[in-house]
Amino acid sequence: MPIADGVFLLAFSILPSLLRLYWVLCTMAAVLALLPLPGLAGFRAAVILSACRGKLVDMKPHKAFGPLSVSLLALCLLEVHLVRRYLETVLIMQYPPNARMHGIAYLYGISYYLVVPATLVPLALLQRLADGGLESLLGRGAMMGALPSALEATLARLSALQWLGVLAFVAGNLLQLHSHRLLANLSRGTQSGTYRIPRGGLFELVSCPHYLAEIVIYSGLGLLIGAQRPLAWLILAWVAANLVLAAGMTQAWYRRRFPSYPSRRKALFPWLY
């Protein structure tokens, strides 16, 4: 066997374990950063850098088919979400000319969007790659033409819980789009770098409805594919832990900057936190 083929097969054989380890470590890091434990200042600073976004960047210390067709549906939904976020970033959001992102957050973002799709791929496909290499898929190119009908059949077979996941995914995207539009409207007609208190929508209840929407989106993916890919729940655990951390910092930032900030407005979850 050529060395390149051997390396390829080895990489795909250990990929499931590496994906599991990635999400466990990410989630544990965010949870530890939330706990007031002594001696973790440097570690907490590094984790906070991955959670810093937007206005918080200045707070940095000196993220055959069968089960395969469900995975394809989840990957298609994820692609819709990412395309929506790209268009939203380019066409709707308003960023000041001096906006910047820390290198740690940038590198983590790249790794995140490489790992998430790989996590949603079913183990059977990864095993097929490990056993037969890339040719085991390339040799099945004729199957690609059957994907639309396979996805249509998948929709017909979805359970009530999986349909709930699809609806949660759609609702989360709509909530996030609406919240981002409200944030973008705050920046229009104001001086660069000027912030105002967000109003309207779920901003009346929480400081970060766009973060809440992200959690709803990944909860939907978990309900859709969690039975086939339990690792999807680890993605949700990491997203939730990371955004709880970011929302808490955002809430504190608003309260420091605006003495009149609504005292009853929670950080992330209405009436709870």
From TrEMBL:
Entry's transmembrane regions: 20-43, 64-83, 103-125, 161-180, 201-225, 231-254
Short name of one Pfam family: Steroid_dh
Keyword rRNA-binding: no
Membrane-topology descriptor: Multi-pass membrane protein
GO CC annotation: endoplasmic reticulum
Localization terms from the record: Endomembrane system
InterPro entries (alphabetical): 3-oxo-5_a-steroid_4-DH_C, Dfg10/SRD5A3
Main location as per UniProt: membrane
UniProt keyword terms in alphabetical order: Membrane, Transmembrane, Transmembrane helix
Annotated ranges, domain 3-oxo-5-alpha-steroid 4-dehydrogenase C-terminal: 163-273
Keyword Transmembrane: yes
Superkingdom of origin organism: Eukaryota
Biological process annotations from GO: dolichol-linked oligosaccharide biosynthetic process; polyprenol catabolic process
GO molecular function, a single term: 3-oxo-5-alpha-steroid 4-dehydrogenase activity
Name this protein carries in UniProt: 3-oxo-5-alpha-steroid 4-dehydrogenase C-terminal domain-containing protein
Species name: Auxenochlorella protothecoides (Green microalga)
